[in-house]
Amino acid sequence: ELPRVVGIVADLAGIGVDGLIIQDLGVWRLARTHFPGLPLHASTQLAVHNAAGVRMLEQMGFSRAVLARELSLAEIGAIRQQSAIELEHFVHGALCFSVSGQCLFSSAVSGMSGNRGRCAQPCRRRYLNREQPGYHFSTSDFSALSLLPQLLKAGVVSLKIEGRMKSAEYVARVVAAYRLLLDAPESGRKQAMQEAEEQLALSFGRKSTKGFLTGSIPSAIADSATQGTLGKHLGQVTSLRGGMLGFTTSDRLHVGDRIRVQPKNDQAGTGFTVRELWLEQKKQKVVKAGDFVRVRIPDKGGFFQVGDTIFKVGGKAAFTMSPEACRATLAQVAVPEKSPAQKEILTKARVQAIASLLPAAAPPVASVQTLTVRGREPQDFRILDEPGVAELELVLTPETLAGLKKMDLHRADWQGRVIWEIPPMLFGTEWDEYRRAVGMLAGQGFCRFRLNNLGHLPLFSGLSDLTLLGGFRCYTLNSQAALAWQELGLAGLTADLEDDRKNLQELFRRAEHLPPLAVTVYSPLVVMLSRIPVRGVRPGAVLRAEGGEGYRVFQHHGLTEVLAEQDFSLLGHLGALKSMGCARIIVDLSHCGAMSAKGQQVLGALSVDQPLPETTIFNYQRGLA
After folding, report:
1. Three-state DSSP class for residue 147
2. What angle do CA 231, 237, 243 make, to 5 degrees?
């Protein structure tokens, strides 16, 4: 995809756009190197959630950071005090259950990656908890209208409204509501708030909360009893005959309104515009709340059943206004014609950017594969005595640090063979605690650390003789991203768990120019990482989708982890990876312990490259979309 990206970025530079919102560091590297005049904004998909991450973006040349939605007003204010670049924050729209940029759920279910803007929204589906159905991951919408003064005081200079997948009517109403309040004088703020709230009430969103901004997590942010469906609930289908569906409406309904009929299962609903309304035996233009109404089903309206739920998702305004009425006459904008010199500069930059893309070559077949085992606790140090195990990786937590104090650290080779992994999310004062922990470990002779977020890099400033590696959450799907991470200080990287065989081959064909790339060949599959608790579900309990797949929910250090019931495994494909040139593999046994019976079973299968039952190869064969 890189050559096409170069063309798009070059065209945008020629147009003179006001900003490029970036998630992939390969795009950052290309834009910064070849199109330095383009203002760069860091996407919320980069999961920047602390002051260290924002300061890192500042050093990288970003002019604006779109902060993670999980932050409170106090946390945003603290970030503002420690950084200078512009801060942008979401103020209205859907909330993801997972931290943005940390979700593999859609990819695991369908191969369509939410991290690449192609989310299939499995979080909106229904799951069984002890045979009881519920919408455990389906969040309410987010509305910060009443908190605008506090957001501005905290240092936010740009307000982000989700509109990409919404109707024009929804976008128009929401933008108008926020603009109304922003532009109101102090004396008219109360009246403006009332009018803005009336506008939002007509936007047909889900029920809303203030998200994380107040510092506490609202109980209604994810209500398992409520289907997270857009629109105003009207009722349930009670009759189907004569090409019409009948129901008692709980709200006024007008010809031209859009409704969606949602089946009782968790399949996608069917939406259509109301063309005919019947009350008893008479056609009507409008019916009131409490009326039993029949609505004509379009010829290609879909398959409906008694018991399906009906939502109003759009008003008649969108139906009754003609394209001519909506079309506005814009004043002619005088755009200065680019001089031949400017055109030549852009053309040259495009050519140089294309030329800088690394050529593919045949990679050497790896003679051996260095094995890193990701363990659970310091007692797993014993795995380093096992033949074939080169390194042990441990997640740095208060528990592992406490366990470390009980260990005999006089074995000189241990420090050089242990990698400490930094958890991806460090909110508030956690970052300072990890800064102290990293310094302590470095003082004890540990010199290898794995990072998972841009905000981790400043943890190591002022420390020398350390090897910094990237975890799979330092997403590396292309060679330019690999080079970007290398330039930021990482000596090695980990392939994205989402990646597929074809793209891995492309990366290894450029391996001689890139930092070493390790491939995870066995791991629990964390599909979502969230600051939202799943209420009413026992830790470790299985939530089962109607298709049969299951997910376990755990709480660790204030974060919810949702794990697929089946572990990710490329065992049985080690020979193919070796022929690609993969010389470093990772086996993650952090969920069971390296020395456990399960851990030994996995390592035994690894030694003979034997597939394990009840595991998934994720996107390896089917491809990443």
Report:
1. helix
2. 110
